[in-house]
Amino acid sequence: MRVTVYYDYICPYCFLGTKRIERLTEEFDITVEWRGIEIHPEIPPEGVKRAKTLRFNQVLPNIKEMGQEDNLDIKLPGIVANSRLSLEASEFAKSKDSFRGFHNGVYEAYFQDGENIGSIDVILNIGEKTGLEVNELERCLKNRTMLKRIEENRRDAEKDQVLGVPTILFGGFGVHGVQSLDTFRKIINRVIERS
Fold first, then answer.
1. Does residue 59 carry a pLDDT above 90?
2. Measured between alpha carbons, how far is 152 from 73 in angstroms, rounded to an integer?
3. Is 6 helix (H, G, I), strand (E, B) or coil?
4. 110, 9 in Cβ contact below 8 A?
5. For residue 174, what is the domain's CATH number?
6. How many CA atoms lie less than 13 Å away from 53 in the CB half-sphere?
7. Percent of the chain predicted with pLDDT > 90
8. pLDDT of residue 56
9. How far is CA 65 from CA 30, 111, 120, 166, in A?
10. In terms of Cα–Cα distance, which of 127, 83, 137, 138 is closest to 102?
11. Is 33 helix (H, G, I), strand (E, B) or coil?
12. Which one of 18, 33, 136, 163 is most buried, counting C-beta atoms within 10 A?
């Protein structure tokens, strides 16, 4: 079964969804296609300071509780980053068969170490740690080599009626938001039964 995951690195629920989908690949015969889309392209390259709003205070306990299911300690960083370069770098990592390590590295840098994943230096550091050739990655980012792929992902998301991230398509069945592992298992089994 083909599973398509629409994600953005500044979404903590996408981090949780990634971990759960990775676990499901060990249980089911599924092929995952990861499609990064920018949910807040208006954020400047340097990012913006995260405001501790009422919504922030309501969402944080939920994120932390959900993280416990996956043994993840998620912290919302003090900055809302612009994710465009990280998304482009993830497309580069795909082309080098290094996506999974880089993908998880970006989430960990942002939601565990509080780094600004919109910074080219941070991205290059993640790339180096995950085995990418740093000079090649830097050229890719400076030349915006993968920009078209991010734009294609956005167009595909519009066709697939993606309203937010994570959105996960199990075959043709769409699920908006992260669900428990058990719920994902039931969805996969139902899709398999119907095909």
1. no
2. 33
3. strand
4. yes
5. 3.40.30.10
6. 6
7. 90
8. 76
9. 27, 15, 32, 18
10. 127
11. strand
12. 18
Confidence of residue 172 (pLDDT cuts 50, 70, 90): confident
In this prediction, residues 27-56 reach a mean pLDDT of 92
Q: What phi-psi label fits residue 174: left (phi over 0), alpha (psi between -120 and 50 degrees) or beta? A: beta
Task: For residue 108, count other CB atoms closer than 10 A to its CB.
Answer: 16
Question: What's the CA gap between 35 and 7, in Å, rounded?
Answer: 6
Query: Where do we find the tokens 């830097």?
Result: 138
Give the count of domains, the chain. 1
Model pLDDT for residues 106-145, shown as the tens digit of each residue: 999 999 999 999 999 999 999 999 999 999 999 999 999 9
Cβ(98)–Cβ(45) under 8 Å?
A: no
Its domain, for residue 162, covers: 2-194
The structure tokens 């300690």 sit at: 73
- Classify 34 as helix, strand or coil: strand
